[in-house]
Design brief:
Number of strands: 13
Radius of gyration: 21 Å
Mean pLDDT: 94
Helix content: 25-40%
Largest sheet: 8 strands, mixed
Strand order of the largest sheet: 7-8-9-6-10-11-12-13
Order of helices and strands: EHEHHEHEHEHEHHHEEEEEEEHHHH
Number of helices: 13
Shape: globular
Strand content: 15-25%
Distance between the termini: 29 Å
Low-confidence stretches: none
C-alpha cells in the first residue's frame, strides 16, 4: 500500500495488453491528475507480450506477474503493494479476477458488465463490503461535469416532477460483420461464450441504464425488452429496445445498439419534467441544453461560473476549453483516489451525493441485463427486475 499521507496511490492492472484500447484508457485516466503510479500487472495471457508491455510502461520486472493469482498473493504481502487493481479483461473473466483481489483486501476497478450473472455480482459486492475494499465500476459517463450538473438540476427540482426520459447508446461500430476480420474486440464482443448472448445490453445498454439512473435519481420498477440481431449471421443480439417504468411512475425508453449504421458513439439522454427538460449528448459533452415550458432553450457550457459545485469541481481549464472522454475517465479515477486515500489515512469519507459508481451499480447493471433477457424470452412481457424487489439505490 502507498505511504500514509502521500498523494499518489499504487495501481495495478490485469488485462490491457496488445490491442486493448480500454487498458490504454484506464492508464491515461490514472495519470491525468497524477494520482496513481502503475507498479504491477499482468498485461495479457502471453508472458513475453505481457513483459514487453510492462517494460514499456515502466512496470518493474519483479512486479510483472504470470497470472492474477500470483499477483494478488504477492502484492497483498508487500508493504508497498497495490492500493487498487484495474480489471480490463473480457467479460467472462471478471468474476474470478475481481474476487481474488477483493479477498486479498485489494480494491478493484472492474470493467462492466461486472459479471455474467447477478449471483456472482452480488458475491463480489458482499466480499468488498466485508473486506473493506472498494469495488468500483467505470460508468465514466457519469463523471462528465455537465452530467453531474444535469443530475444536480434534477435533485434540486429545476425540472419539476420527471414525466418521461429517453436514453440511447446507439453506436454504428459493428453495423457490418467486423468480427469476421481482424477486429479483436469485435471477435470477443460478439462471442456469446465471452460477452453473453444479450451482448449489446451488457456492453452498451448498461452504460445507458446507469446514465438514466444517475441523472434522474430514479430506479426502474419494470422493464419490457425486445432484442434483435440486425447483422445477418451474428451470434449475439446487437440491438435492444427497452421500455421502462421508473420509480415515480414515469415511463422511459432505452435504445442500445452496436449496429446503428453511421452513428458515432451515439450516447444521448433527454429528461422531461413538468417545468423544464434537459438534453445531453456525448458528442458534445461540454454543453447541456435546458428547455422551458414555452420552448425557449438555454445552452449551459462547462466552465460557466453559475454552474453547480458538482460540475465546477470536475472542470480543469475553464470556459471555452472543451474536455472529453479521457478527462471524464480521469474524473472517475480522481473521485476514487480521494476515497482510497481517505480510507488509507483514516480520514472522513469523501463520498458525496453524486460520486463514482460502485459494485452495487455494477450488480444493478447485471440484474438489468437479466431482466431484459427474461422479458425478450417472454415476448417482451413486463418483468420486475431484481433490484426493484431489493429496493437498491444508486
Amino acid at each position: 500500500m502507498s505511504k500514509q499521507g502521500s498523494l499518489r496511490l499504487v495501481g495495478g492492472m490485469v488485462g490491457g495488453g496488445q490491442g486493448a484500447d480500454i487498458g490504454k484508457t484506464h492508464r491515461y485516466a490514472m495519470r491525468l491528475d497524477d494520482r496513481y503510479d502503475l507498479h504491477a500487472g499482468v498485461f495479457g495471457r502471453d508472458g513475453a507480450s505481457s513483459a514487453r508491455i510492462a517494460e514499456s510502461l515502466g512496470v518493474p520486472a519483479d512486479r510483472t506477474y504470470r497470472d492474477y493469482r500470483e499477483m494478488a498473493e504477492r502484492e497483498s504481502a508487500r508493504e508497498d503493494g497495490v492500493d487498487v487493481v484495474a480489471v480490463t479483461t473480457p467479460n467472462d473473466s471478471h468474476f474470478d479476477i475481481a474476487r481474488t483481489f477483493l479477498e486479498a483486501g485489494i480494491s478493484v476497478v472492474c470493467e462492466k458488465p461486472l459479471t455474467s450473472d447477478s449471483a456472482s455480482a452480488a458475491e463480489l459486492v458482499a466480499i468488498a463490503e466485508s473486506s473493506g475494499a472498494i469495488l468500483a465500476v467505470p460508468h465514466c459517463y457519469s463523471a462528465y461535469a455537465m452530467v453531474r450538473h444535469a443530475a444536480r438540476m434534477v435533485r434540486d427540482g429545476d425540472l419539476g416532477r420527471i414525466r418521461f426520459a429517453a436514453v440511447e447508446h446507439a453506436s454504428g461500430w459493428a453495423a457490418a460483420p467486423v468480427e469476421l476480420g481482424e477486429h479483436r474486440q469485435a471477435r470477443w464482443r460478439t462471442d456469446p461464450g465471452v460477452a453473453g448472448f444479450p451482448s449489446v445490453v451488457g456492453d452498451l445498454g448498461t452504460h445507458a441504464f446507469h446514465l438514466l439512473r444517475y441523472i434522474t435519481g430514479l430506479e426502474a420498477t419494470r422493464v419490457s425488452a425486445e432484442l434483435d440481431t440486425l447483422v445477418p449471421g451474428r451470434r449475439v443480439f446487437d440491438n435492444a429496445t427497452v421500455r421502462l417504468t421508473l420509480s415515480n411512475g414515469a415511463p422511459a425508453t432505452l435504445w442500445a445498439s452496436m449496429a446503428a449504421t453511421g452513428n458515432e458513439h451515439g450516447l444521448r439522454i433527454r429528461v422531461f419534467g413538468d417545468a423544464a427538460s434537459i438534453e445531453w449528448r456525448h458528442e458534445d459533452p461540454q454543453h447541456l441544453t435546458v428547455r422551458d415550458l414555452d420552448g425557449g432553450a438555454t445552452i449551459l457550457a462547462q466552465g460557466m461560473r453559475t454552474l453547480s459545485e458538482d460540475a465546477g469541481r470536475l472542470t480543469r481549464p475553464g470556459l471555452g476549453h472543451p474536455e472529453g472522454f479521457l478527462e471524464a475517465f480521469a474524473n472517475f479515477y480522481r473521485d476514487l483516489a480521494d476515497e482510497l486515500r481517505a480510507r488509507r489515512d483514516d480520514t472522513p469519507t469523501t463520498l458525496r451525493d453524486l460520486s463514482f459508481p460502485t459494485g452495487r451499480d455494477g450488480l444493478i447493471g447485471v440484474q438489468f441485463v437479466e431482466a431484459t433477457a427474461a422479458s425478450h424470452a417472454a415476448d417482451s412481457a413486463w418483468v420486475v427486475p431484481a433490484f426493484a424487489h431489493d429496493k437498491v439505490g444508486i
